[in-house]
Each structure stands twice: as structure tokens, then as C-alpha cells.
């Protein structure tokens, strides 16, 4: 069975083809021009998806040695994400499905990340604990099966990736902040880091990052009276202290959940899962609890259509049927599964 996956929820246009579980193509075109605006501009993102989607589909078919008629299932991200961007991929998928007379499967972007570990050779086993950390979401989930996902905790303010991006800007590193903060933090030789406080939450599995972001802002204002005056030599220490605080909070909640729920694996997913120090910390915790640790290769951490094709395939195998009334949705509230 040849499954087409389409992902256009934000600033990556991605098209993938999965044939009976084997990934034939996963093309990702990142819209780098947003960098000069300091963040993703929704309208520009939609237009770029429109321009990129057909060339990417052609290239994916060529790479897979398939014709368009040989596609058996058309899946695309329905949400959450930027509504205009989502509509490009979703509407394109509906049109293709109708013209080829092949089933259409809308896929939730977060579910894509949650099951992205299955794209690896080293696969998770149900039930597993999953930490999804991306630019828009931070979720700690108990994944019991393909169709049973329980939300243990979420962020009460900013998402983890959003905090990386905001702090990146705040200390003059530009957008996106995540990879740049990791790079700067790696240069920090000091062991005595700045103690940035992290807010407590009512639900023990929830997260809060906005106080941490404010603490960094206050520090920069107090010590340097503005980001323009930060000494270059101090940036690694600020980056490392912030990153350390984020990882400590994420790891603390993961560890608590591992103590309270019987699971077989721990999965780390989403764009922030690319962070080396976070990967190392959760790998260390998994060893401590004798847990299988699965984290996707970098190609599958950020937004990609391979995870959408995989999820579309599983939903189809589970007997799920969808019609063309299925609409794009901007927030996780539109998700029908995660409770
Ligand atoms: O999942 P993703 O590609 O898009 C969303 O669905 O949001 O995640 C993007 C986020 C951005 O906030 C980016 O700064 C962050 O992932 N990110 C990182 C790293 N690489 C990307 N954060 C920390 N460390 C990294 N190495
Ligand atoms: Zn994502």
C-alpha cells in the first residue's frame, strides 16, 4: 500500500511516501525566508506552500519510482497549525483523493509527532510515555495504543520551543532560537550557572515557561541594561543556564510520570527533541528506570510528512473513514483523540 503524506501546518512544506511501512521519500522544504521577519508570517507561509507542494509531490513520486495513480491513500495534516497553511495541504489532499478515487485521511499534527518513534528501527512499545516538545506544544502523554492517548500534563503558558525562540530573540540570537541556544550553551565552560527560577504548577505534570523567560529578560535588563550590551563572552552562560532550567523541568515531570505509571518505553518527539542535551538527559533517566528510550532521527523531530503518512496509514488500518467535510483546525481543541 502506497501512502502519501502531506504536511503544511507551519513553515515546512513536506511530502512523503510510505510503502507498506517502508519510507520511500520524505522531502522537507523549509521556508527560511521567515528568518528576516523574526518569526513565521502566516500569509507568506500559505503562499509558499502553494508554490512548493506540486513540485515536491512530483519529486517524491520520482524518488519512489511510482506514478500518481499508484498512490493508494492520501493523508494530510488537518491541525493544529496556521489555518491558511493547513488549508493548502488539506485541500490539495482532498482534491487528489477525489480525482484518484482513493481514500482521504486527515491527520492530527501532534498525533504525527506522538507516533514518529515508529519511523525508527528501534521502535517504542505500548504503553509508552511520550513527551512532545515543539514550537506550539508541550505535552506529556500516556500512549496506551494507536487509539488511546491520555494527556497527563501540558504547558499552562508558553510551549518549550516558543520559550527557546523568545529567549533566543531576547539575547540577540535571532529566530529560531532553539538550535542557536543549543550551540551557544555548548560553548559554556562554566559550571556555576545562573539560577533562573521555574514556576510551580497546580497539576504536577504541567509545565510553565513564561516565568523563566521573564527571569532571563530581567537578568538581561539588570546586568546589561538591554540585549545590545550583553557581553559576547556571557552569551554561552546565559544560554546554558536557560537551557538547563528548561531541561530540568521537562525531566522532572517525565521522571515523576515514570515513577507513577507502568510503561514500557519513553518517547521524546517534536522539534525541541532535536536538542542534544535534552536527548542525553532523557536517555539517562530511561536507563535509570530500565526503560526503552526512543527519539526520532533529526529528520523526523521537526515537522515532516513521513510522520503524517505513518499516522494516516495506521488510522486507515484501524478502519477509520473520513469524508471531505473534515475541516482544518487551528488548536489542539480540534483533536478528537487526546483526552
Ligand atoms: O515541531 P516543530 O518543528 O514545529 C512545530 O510544530 O512547532 O518545532 C519547532 C521548534 C522551534 O521552536 C525550534 O526553536 C525548536 O523546535 N528547536 C529546538 C532545537 N531545534 C529546533 N529547540 C531546542 N534545541 C534544538 N536543537
Ligand atoms: Zn510540529
Task: Give structural notes.
The strands form two sheets. This protein has a five-stranded mixed beta sheet with strand order 3-2-1-4-5, with helices on both faces. Strands 8-7-6-9-10 form a five-stranded mixed beta sheet. The radius of gyration is 20 Å and the shape is globular. The two termini are 31 Å apart. It contains ten helices and ten strands. It is 41% helix and 19% strand. It has two domains: 2-115 and 300-334, Nucleotidyltransferase, domain 5, CATH 3.30.420; 121-295, ATPase, nucleotide binding domain (Nucleotidyltransferase, domain 5). The structure holds 5'-O-[(R)-(carboxyoxy)(hydroxy)phosphoryl]adenosine (KG4) and zinc ion. Zinc ion binds at residues 109, 113, 134, 270-271, 303.
What is the CATH first-level class name of the largest domain?
A: Alpha Beta
* Ligand inventory: 5'-O-[(R)-(carboxyoxy)(hydroxy)phosphoryl]adenosine, zinc ion
Gap from first CA to last CA: 31 Å
Summarize model confidence as the mean pLDDT. 96
